[in-house]
Amino acid sequence: MAKISVVVYGADVACASCVNAPTSKDTYQWLQPLLKRKLPKHHFEFTYIDIENDTDNLTDHDEQFIERINDDELFYPLITMNDEYVADGYIQTRRVTRFIETHFNH
């Protein structure tokens, strides 16, 4: 069973370019049951990082992703798995599940 650390970076306010997209927290909440249901043989650990408020105890990876969001290189919500970029902005289920199938189904 693969152990996958899923991190969702986000903020309370929806990103400007993500009109009509789910909020960061909504994305975090629907992602958990979705991944557990679609990929039951994997063990997921989920973390939500508020890019505006959760600034303590961040890893270098976390700080780099937050900096790239703040520099408008990436959008939030942003999803990483085991510190690898998966998707950002408007999150699509197919892209997330394809990443897992490609990287963790060996």
TrEMBL record:
InterPro entries, A to Z: DUF1462, Thioredoxin-like_sf, YuzD-like_sp
Top-level taxon in the UniProt lineage: Bacteria
SUPFAM superfamilies from the UniProt entry: Thioredoxin-like (SSF52833)
Pfam families: DUF1462 (PF07315)
Name this polypeptide is given: Putative disulfide oxidoreductase
